[in-house]
Q: What sequence folds into this?
């Protein structure tokens, strides 16, 4: 089917799931995650299909509904089980470069995704709000390495821009920016040919292209964008289950694309060197290959919401 038809079917089935949850009293957070699947490997007539991710252990409960969804898609659907989606910070070193460990004042660790330029011309580093601004406060200190990696880490800057996470309603962005003093902090930029090197951004990533990320926990990994437009519930621990829409999903045959602590990584096309997503969550099990799933926010949405530019190359140009 075509992309617009796949999104239309997704929305229709989401309405049906919502009505079912209301009638049965089931928590919406326990429902399947629906989105759009790229069908290049399925031999379908069109380029897209329905993506259905069933929570592990709920396959029997949603068996009849899943059959209904596949019938609605006329067989053009990819169905997989998946573990619980969770925001990827780590409770468990030292230069500022994409992929390194950072955090706010809590004893956790996430990932520095990239360097950005703000509207006033100052520069900062990009990661997730749940890594740098979990308390939804600006002015908090940012640490490198993350205090989960080194409890005695020293602050390198402060949080200046972030999107507050909502416990009610739908979230679209989990992102924050922390400043740094360029007179005191040296950024080590990836060189052409090195993992993490960025030349620009895109809102139309190529499904056929291998994508990569450099993260604090799993380092340099490769995978593919397999699903988009997912409405998903994410476990944010103390904040509870938060709902996110327009989620991109990456998967890898080789092993985990990401794990806890990789949140904040920027996902980049291996050949084009164009950034497409900001990693923020995942499931350690299930998915198409059984290696788990990685959830990302479209990078263009992050940049437009925070009114920032992602700096590419050697740091001289905006992406």
A:
């Amino acid at each position: 089917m075509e992309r617009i038809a796949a999104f239309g079917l997704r929305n229709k089935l989401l309405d049906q799931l919502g009505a079912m949850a209301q009638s049965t009293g089931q928590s919406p957070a326990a429902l399947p995650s629906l989105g759009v699947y790229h069908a290049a490997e399925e031999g379908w007539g069109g380029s897209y299909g329905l993506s259905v991710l069933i929570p592990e252990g709920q396959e029997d409960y949603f068996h009849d509904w899943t059959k209904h969804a596949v019938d609605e898609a006329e067989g053009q659907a990819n169905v997989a089980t998946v573990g619980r989606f969770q925001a990827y910070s780590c409770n468990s070193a030292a230069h500022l470069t994409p992929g390194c460990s950072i955090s706010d004042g809590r004893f956790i660790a996430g990932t520095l995704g990239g360097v950005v330029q703000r509207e006033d011309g100052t520069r900062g580093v990009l990661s997730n709000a749940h890594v740098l601004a979990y308390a939804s406060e600006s002015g908090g200190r940012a640490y490198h390495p993350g205090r989960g990696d080194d409890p005695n880490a020293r602050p390198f800057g402060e949080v200046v821009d972030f999107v507050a996470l909502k416990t009610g309603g739908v979230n679209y962005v989990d992102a924050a920016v922390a400043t740094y003093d360029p007179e005191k902090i040296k950024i080590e930029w990836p060189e052409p040919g090195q993992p993490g090197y960025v030349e620009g951004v895109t809102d139309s990533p190529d499904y056929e292209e291998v994508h990569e990320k450099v993260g604090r926990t799993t380092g340099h990994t490769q995978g593919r964008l397999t699903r988009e437009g997912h409405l998903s519930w994410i476990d944010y621990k103390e904040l509870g289950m938060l709902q996110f829409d327009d989620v991109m999903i990456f998967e890898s045959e080789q092993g985990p694309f990401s794990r806890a602590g990789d949140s904040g990584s920027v996902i980049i096309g291996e050949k084009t060197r164009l950034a497409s997503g900001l990693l923020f969550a995942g499931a350690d099990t299930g998915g198409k290959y059984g290696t788990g799933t990685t959830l990302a926010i479209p990078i263009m949405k992050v940049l437009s919401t925070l009114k920032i530019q992602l700096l590419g190359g050697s740091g001289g140009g905006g992406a």
Remarks:
- The longest strand covers residues 219-235.
- The radius of gyration is 19 Å.
- The first helix runs from residue 3 to 24.
